[in-house]
Amino acid sequence: MPRWETPLCVVQYGLDEAGQKRFVDRLAQVGKPLHVAVNRGKCEPNVTIVYSTSPAADASDIATRKADYIRDHKPDGIERFRAASDAIDWFALALPTTAEGYQVQEGGRGRLLNSLIERPTRSVAVETFIIVDAAKARSMAPAQLFDCLTMITLSSPRIGGIPDKSVLQLANQPPAKAPLEMTPEDRAYLTALGSIAKQPDLSHRREAIEARMAGILG
Q1: Of 201, 1, 20, 5, whose CA–CA distance to 118 is shortest?
Q2: Cβ-Cβ contacts under 8 Å for 214 (sequence gap 6 or more)
Q3: Is 111:193 a contact under the CB 8 Å cutoff?
Q4: Residues 32/26, Cβ–Cβ less than 8 Å
Q5: Which residues contact 107 (CB under 8 A, 6 or more apart)?
Q6: What does R_g of the chain's alpha carbons equal in angstroms?
Q7: What kind and span of H or E run contains 191?
Q8: Nearest-CA neighbor of 154 among 50, 44, 43, 26?
Q9: Under 8 Å CB-to-CB from 90, ≥6 apart: which residues?
Q10: Is the four-CA dihedral 144, 145, 150, 153 of positive or negative sign?
Q11: Contact 131, 59 (CB under 8 A)
């Protein structure tokens, strides 16, 4: 469950300027209480969204450009991303980092480079890629689509097993069957995620998230 520790810099392809601004505004609004800032100036993109008429081809191009990272880290959902058969597909790049901010060796065991000392680690988000099937997106309400993209960007959810009470259902369900906006469960998840930012993974397991959500939802 990677967390952002740097401001988001969003680049979008295939969407009109007004739509791009509306999404960034929504992302900034939801991210603010989570202490996730959005950089609106000139910056190096770390969130790429492609509204594509050829999803599989664009997904393949992105995967090719990130082949080294994919080979070394095997990010969740990469094969599904390459196929780009859903309405929305994504994958996130993240690196294990110690509480002191040091990147750790591959395997996520928290071992400092050139050292046998173990450290608790946290997963830090580095970059996210999202492919939106433009043909399927035509039947989606903009607010519904942007809430789904906001959830993907801020929480880097695992592929598959999406809860019924989540706007993330829009990624693989017809729009009429998905929530029209971010649900209370979605908001509780983001709040729980934000409440344990920068803590090591030992306190960031699914059980900890679920316990915090239960307290929020009552």
Answers
A1: 201
A2: none
A3: no
A4: no
A5: none
A6: 17
A7: helix 184-195
A8: 26
A9: 77, 81, 128, 129, 130, 131, 152, 159
A10: positive
A11: yes
What number of other Cβ atoms are within 10 A of residue 58's Cβ? 19
Q: Write out pLDDT tens, residues 164-218.
A: 889 999 998 889 999 999 999 999 988 888 776 555 554 456 777 778 888 888 7
For 208, other C-beta atoms within 10 Å of its C-beta total 17
Structure tokens at 10: 């969003």
Specify the pTM. Answer: 0.85
> Which residues face 97 on adjacent strands?
103, 122
Supply angle C-alpha 63, 67, 70, rounded to 5.
90
pLDDT tens, residue by residue, 63-102: 999 999 888 878 878 988 999 999 999 998 888 765 555 4
Cα gap 131→23, rounded to integer Å:
15
